[in-house]
Specification:
Blueprint: E1 7-13, E2 16-22, H1 26-46, H2 52-85
Antiparallel strand pairs: 1-2
Subcellular location: Cytoplasm
Organism: Bacillus methanolicus PB1
Protein name: Cell division protein ZapA
Length: about 90
Amino acid sequence: MSDAQKNRITVEIYGQQYVIVGYESTSHIRLVASIVDDKMREISSKNPSLDTSKLAVLTAVNAVNDYLKIKDRLERLENELKRVKD
């Protein structure tokens, strides 16, 4: 895909503006930014003394943890489906 097909959008996450460029739709990019913003605010409300860098790292750790759990669940479901089909 060429750069002309990429979407470029400015989003706000935790009070900072970021320009995001990607092939996903602008609504998808906005949704991702909104979820990151919500998670940062949730973690910050429980740990108000965290600086922004530590808050961002904890948010990333939470996101990757969620991703790995979902990935594991998907793999188990795919294996179960394969056994049922065989």
